Each structure stands twice: as structure tokens, then as C-alpha cells.
């Protein structure tokens, strides 16, 4: 008898749940129009502006096309573009190497410095507002303008040589003249901007940490550094994921800075520059440019997927 009563109660609960779900989905015409506008329209724009061009780029990477004569002149060549890039393009190796340098400097130097700045600024030291604004200012300037400013500072007729009195004779320092050192000068400039970006992200995350966690750690006798490592950093896991993703993407999609300085030549070859030169440059090798873009996409998305998978697997 008790089993029958329990069964009837479960049936009533199930019916009530179904009715509640039906009420929740019983949107009016205005509600549906609002949802379609604010969800459907951005989704369609994203599909047409991002996914369709991305899929077309991947397909074009398996073709030969010079962009002349319309789509009828597209020829399917399979993996020929990829083989030719690896075997014949002298800029491919230096571009991969420079992008990896970029990633290493951002990950091992610029990002830790940004986190360290956020740590000290969060302590509300004297002049915090000034430091915070100073390190944030580079983010307001676009990378193209940043390249113009620093090119003026470092070129042979620029600010440094003018201050040294070297711009009127042959003793001018040529900061862009050594292919083996140019990448390091540019990485210094790029890090100047990236440090402020990471500082801003991490500082925003640290402001949201529950103060009671730090108080509990202090009561337990933890030092300030131990509290930061063992309490604050684990609490900022979502911010840490964002920082990893941003660092990888910013490193591999670098383009503006080096193209403004010297069109990505003389030791500053990058994958992003090769994509631009092959698709919009004088060579008009659409297939090669699409292949470079596909390789760049794989290099960007691959480490991010692996990192996110490992993090969510540990969480599960």
C-alpha cells in the first residue's frame, strides 16, 4: 500500500514538473521576437562573418588560385600547398621560430611580470592609481600606432639617435639592421603592451576574491606569499584560463607591429605576415595564404583545446 502511495506522489510530481516546463516555454510573440533578435541575429552574423570564411579558407588551402578570373579558375591540388610551403618557402622556418620566440617571451617573462604588477598594485601602495594608469595606457593605443611610435624612437633618424647626436653622421645606431636581433627589439615593444594587459585582467580577478579567504589563511599562520600562491591563485582559476588563452592567441596572431616597422622582413618574419603577403601581396597565391592561415589556426587552437581539456578533466 505504501508503495502505491509513493508511486502516486512521484507521478504527481512528474506532472507538476512537466506543467512548469510548459509554462516556462510558453513565450509570447514579443518574447520570441526579442530572443530571435538578441540571440539569433548575433549568431547569424557570427556564422557568416567568422565560420563561413574560416571554412572557405581551409578549403582554399587545398587549391591553387591567383584570385584572377573568378571562382572557375580554382584548381584542386590537395596537400601540394602545404608540401611546397614546408619544402620551398625560405620564410616558413624563420616565421615559425619567431612566433615561438614570441610565445616563449610572453609566457615566461611578460605574463609573470603582469601578474607580479597586479599583485603589488592590489596592495594599494602609495601611487597605485598612477602606476595602474601608466601600465594601462599602452592598451589604449592600437598596435599599428604603437609600431609607428617605436619605429620613430628606434630608427636611424629617430629619437634615441637624435638625443645621442648620431642622426647626422655614420655613427647612428641601426636598431633594425641586424636580422638576428630585430626580433628581440620588437619583443621588448610587444611585452611593454602585453604586461599591462595581463596586469589588468589579473587585477580585476584579484578584486573579486573573497577577503575572508585571506583572513582565514592569515589566522592559520600563512605568510602573504603563501596565501597568494595557495589561496588567491587557485581562486582565480577562470582568470588563469583566460590569461593562458590570451597569451597564446596574442603570440601567434602577431602582425600589426612587425608589418608597420619593416613589412615583416629582415628577421621579423611571422606567420601572420606570410598570410597577408600571399593573399593580398604582389604574389597573389591565395592557396598558399590560405594554407598559412590554416596552419596558424591549428597552432592557435591546438594548445588551447589541450589546456582546457586537461583543466576541465581535473575539475570533473
Tags for this entry?
mainly alpha; 1% strand; 2 strands; 75% helix; 14 helices; 316 residues; 2 domains; single chain
Summarize the structure.
The chain is built from 14 helices and two strands; from the N terminus they run H-H-E-E-H-H-H-H-H-H-H-H-H-H-H-H. By secondary structure, it is an all-alpha fold. The chain is globular.
Write up this protein.
This protein has two domains: 2-60, no CATH class; 86-315, MetI-like (MetI-like fold), CATH 1.10.3720. The protein contains 14 helices and two strands. A two-stranded antiparallel ribbon has the order 1-2. The protein has helices spanning 2-25, 29-60, 80-88, 92-121, 128-140, 143-154, 159-164, 182-207, 211-219, 224-235, 237-252, 256-262, 271-280, 286-315, and strands spanning 63-64, 75-76. The mean pLDDT is 81. It is mainly alpha-helical.
The number of strands is 2
Q: How is the CATH topology of the largest domain named?
A: MetI-like fold
Largest sheet geometry: 2 strands, antiparallel
Q: Mean pLDDT, nearest integer? A: 81
Q: Helix share of residues?
A: over 70%
Q: Quick one: CATH superfamily of the largest domain?
A: MetI-like
Order of helices and strands: HHEEHHHHHHHHHHHH
Please state the structural category: mainly alpha
Q: Please mark out the parts with pLDDT under 50 across 5 or more consecutive residues, or reply none.
A: none
What is the CATH first-level class name of the largest domain? Mainly Alpha
Compute the number of helices: 14
Name the strands of the widest sheet in spatial order.
Answer: 1-2
**Please, how many domains?**
2
Give the name of the CATH architecture of the largest domain: Orthogonal Bundle
What distance separates the N and C termini?
41 Å
Amino acid at each position: 500500500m505504501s508503495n502505491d502511495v509513493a508511486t502516486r506522489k512521484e507521478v504527481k510530481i512528474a506532472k507538476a514538473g512537466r506543467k512548469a516546463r510548459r509554462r516556462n516555454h510558453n513565450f509570447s510573440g514579443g518574447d520570441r521576437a526579442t530572443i530571435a533578435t538578441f540571440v539569433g541575429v548575433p549568431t547569424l552574423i557570427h556564422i557568416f562573418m567568422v565560420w563561413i570564411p574560416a571554412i572557405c579558407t581551409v578549403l582554399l588551402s587545398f587549391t591553387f588560385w591567383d584570385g584572377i578570373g573568378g571562382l572557375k579558375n580554382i584548381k584542386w591540388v590537395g596537400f601540394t600547398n602545404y608540401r611546397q610551403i614546408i619544402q620551398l618557402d625560405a620564410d616558413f622556418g624563420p616565421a615559425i621560430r619567431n612566433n615561438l620566440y614570441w610565445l616563449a617571451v610572453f609566457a615566461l617573462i611578460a605574463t609573470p611580470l603582469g601578474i607580479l604588477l597586479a599583485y603589488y598594485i592590489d596592495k594599494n601602495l602609495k601611487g597605485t592609481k598612477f602606476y595602474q594608469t601608466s601600465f594601462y595606457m599602452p592598451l589604449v593605443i592600437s598596435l599599428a600606432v604603437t609600431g609607428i611610435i617605436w619605429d620613430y624612437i628606434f630608427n636611424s633618424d629617430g629619437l634615441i639617435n637624435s638625443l645621442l647626436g648620431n642622426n647626422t653622421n655614420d655613427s647612428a645606431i641601426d636598431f633594425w639592421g641586424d636580422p638576428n636581433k630585430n626580433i628581440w627589439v620588437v619583443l621588448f615593444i610587444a611585452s611593454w603592451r602585453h604586461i599591462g594587459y595581463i596586469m589588468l585582467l589579473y587585477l580585476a580577478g584579484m578584486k573579486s576574491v573573497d577577503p575572508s579567504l585571506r583572513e582565514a589563511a592569515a589566522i592559520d599562520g600563512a605568510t602573504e606569499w603563501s596565501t597568494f600562491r595557495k589561496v588567491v591563485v587557485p581562486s582565480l582559476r577562470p582568470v588563469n584560463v583566460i590569461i593562458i588563452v590570451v597569451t597564446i592567441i596574442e603570440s601567434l596572431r602577431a602582425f600589426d607591429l612587425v608589418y608597420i616597422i619593416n613589412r615583416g622582413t629582415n628577421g621579423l618574419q611571422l606567420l601572420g605576415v606570410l598570410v597577408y603577403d600571399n593573399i593580398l601581396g604582389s604574389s597573389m597565391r591565395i592557396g598558399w595564404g590560405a594554407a598559412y592561415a590554416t596552419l596558424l589556426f591549428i597552432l592557435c587552437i591546438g594548445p588551447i583545446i589541450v589546456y582546457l581539456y586537461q583543466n576541465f578533466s581535473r575539475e570533473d
